[in-house]
Amino acid sequence: MSQMIGRKNGASLPNDGADAAGTQHGISGKGLKSGQLGLLAVVVLGISSVAPAYSLTSSLGPAVGAVGVQLPAIFIVAFIPMILVAFAYRELNADSPDSGTTFTWATKAFGPFVGWMGGWGLLAANIIVLSNLAGVAVDFFYLFLAQVFNDPGLADLTSNKALNILTCLVFVALAVWVSYRGLHATKLVQFSMVGFQIAVLALFIIMALTHAASGDSPTAIAFSWDWFNPAKISSFDQFAAGMSLAVFVYWGWDVCLTVNEETKGGKGTAGKAGTTTAIAVLGLYIAVIVATMMVAGVGGDGIGLNNPDNQQNVFAALASPVMGPLAILMSLAVLSGTASSLQSTMASPARSLLAMGHYRALPPRFASVSPRFGSPGFATIMAGAISGGFYAIMKVVSENVLNDTILALGLMICFYYAMTAFACTWYFRHSLFSSVRNVFMRLLFPVIGGVVLTVVFFQTAVDSWSPDFGSGSEVFGVGLVFIIGIGILALGVVVMLITARRHPGFFRGETIRKDTPALVVPE
Hints:
By secondary structure, the chain is mainly alpha-helical. It is about 65% helix and about 0% strand.
């Protein structure tokens, strides 16, 4: 039985099933400022969070190392579970729009302990990627300075560990400052930066194809339809590794759902924005991948994608050979893309922390909302502080922190996306066969997407035990990727048990009711 809980820190807390705004199924408002974003703005926010330029420059090298010329195939195959899970998100959001997304929905489907771990997985993924975004932003910041002042030595400043960490923390602090000021400030930043990023990627595609066709690139290879055949991947281990990396590049569209309490046009806006973002990103990725492979090839020499010197940062290696004097635009595109994504991605963990504090799954301080900006102020600051600290620690532990954290991030993504997909089917279990639509949208699509991601999760976990998986960094003989990924999930269990002892209300089911909706088709 839900219990009445009062207001604290300016956030309205849940009652027995409805809040002042009339939200149903035990979901209640949190004091966020509503009606700030329309469909286009949410799509732009989603694309910014995905950060196409950053995602590609960080993942193309490791993905080629895993699957070779089957790179387009693995990106298309990885898109399938992503879009299937996106449909599950739409169904759950239409029933119970809440900024807690996976945390809230998994709690309603499976109970508080599973829901809490779903929220932890989402938070861990976002913290990892925020630190990674900041790291890439640092690299391209100094590369940009080197290009502006025509001094290659400036680009080497990123290898100064202390300076690298300090610069990273400055980027994180700036992202926190903009995010704290709310989604209106976020929107103004995102439109210009996302537009510029896509324009530069389009220019890169054109110039790469031109170089490949002219024959002036010694590593260029001819286009082949075989690249799109996943059956050509030689082993399941390679397939799973490629999937884990490819899943990473699509990840981020779910930020569209975390702002569902702040959108215009009803609860359907966020769901439509999520699927639209995923489809738009797929088209952009395939175009960039094909052009990059044609001009660079997949060899280990020169600008080849298998050259170890290129793998951590593909566009840094390819920009000058492909774009010549316009290479500075690519540096700006990746820099602006990572900076804007750093800021837009901050919305997801901040709102998840807000929801967990609101429903008493974390200390109530996390439920505080800025009276001036209508944003989750304390949660935003904490998300930035944790991500900055995580980067600093990982930078000291591993020289190849970017590669290792990307691989670990794939584990986190598979974990909480699969949980959300299964939560959809179980939550709507009494209406699965009430219509043909529900059979697909609530049963087949979520289950298929969830099973694929679960298989990738376990295969990646097994493979990552070996230090050979990733950069080769290890702790007592165990691969750093495994330590980061599984270690963070294990840490989540410990934190959850401590939280359950100190704040037992949520874990007793007092703030979110585990329930099943009526047999209705959502909007």
